[in-house]
Amino acid sequence: MLLTGKTAIVHGGSGAVGAAVARAFAREGAAVHLTGRTVPPLEEVARRIRGDGGIAHVARLDATDRAAVDRHAEAVAAAGDGTGIDICFNATSDDDLQGSPLLDLAVADVLRPVTKAVTTTLTTATAAARHMIDRGGGVLLVLAGGRETIPGLGGSHIAWSALTGVCRQLAAELGPHGVRVAWLLSPGSPAPGAENRADEGALLTERPGYDDVANAAVFAASDWARTMTATELNLTGGLVPD
After folding, report:
1. Which of 24, 147, 187, 204 is deepest in the core (most CB within 10 A)?
2. Residue 192 lies in a domain
C-alpha cells in the first residue's frame, strides 16, 4: 500500500471529491482525519472507511477559522504515535458562483468565492505545514486549476486560478523543508453514464470519475511522487492540453 503509516487530513471530507480521496487514502494505509462543518455526513464517510478496515476520525471544523484549524492540526499531530501530519488535502467548497458572465456580476459576487478559496487553503495548508516542517517533510494537496477557457465560470474560475498562485508560493517557501505542494485540475466528475461524456474539445471520451481524482491524489501524496512539487496533475482528459 502506498500510504502505509501515513497520517492524512482531508478538509471537506464529506463532499464528493473529499470523500473519495479520504477513502482512497485509507485504502492505501493512511489514518484519515475528516473535517467539515456538519458531522453526520462525515461520520457516514468514516463508517465506510472503518467498514473496509481503515482508520478514520471525524471533527467538526470551519476551515475559514484559522485558530480552530491550528488547534485541530495540533491535535492530529499529537494523536496516535505522535508522528505528525504527512498529508493535507483541501477539498472544501468555495461558495462557487457560475453561470453568469463577468459583465453581469457585482464585484462582491466575483470576489466571494475567491476570498473563501484562498482563505481555506491558506489556513489549512499553513496549519499542517508547520508540523510538516518540524518532521522534515509532508505533502499539501489542493483542488485548483484555472487554465480552462470556458465562459460563465465567474468567480469560481478566478478562485481556482488564485489557488495555483498560492500553491506555487507555498511550494517555493516549503520546498527547502522537504514539504511538497501539488494541485489537481479536474473539470468535474458527474455520475457515471451518458452524462459522464467528456466536454467538447476534450481528447478522451470521458471525464474523470471521483475515483480517478482520488487515485491521482494518492499518487501525488505517495513517495512515488517524491520529486514532484509546484506542479499540477491534469485530469481534464485533454480538454486543457499541456
Report:
1. 24
2. yes
Residues 38-83 have pLDDT tens digits of: 999 999 999 999 999 999 999 999 999 999 999 999 999 998 666 7
d(CA 242, CA 240): 7
Q: Is 240 among the domain residues?
A: no
CB of 30 closer than 8 Å to CB of 103: no
The total number of residues shown for the chain amounts to: 242
Distance CA 107, CA 9 (A): 33
- CB distance 31 to 4 below 8 Å: no
Quote the cell numbers at residue 93.
467548497
Question: Residue 190 falls within a domain, yes or no?
Answer: yes
Taking the C-alpha atoms of residue 126 and residue 121, their distance in angstroms, rounded to an integer, is 8
Question: For the whole model, what pTM was predicted?
Answer: 0.94
Residues 76-89 as b/e (b if ≥16 CB within 10 A, e otherwise) read bbeeeeeebbbbbb
What range does the domain containing 128 cover?
7-234
Structurally, the chain folds into a number of domains equal to 1
Sign for the CA dihedral angle at 97, 17, 193, 187 comes to positive
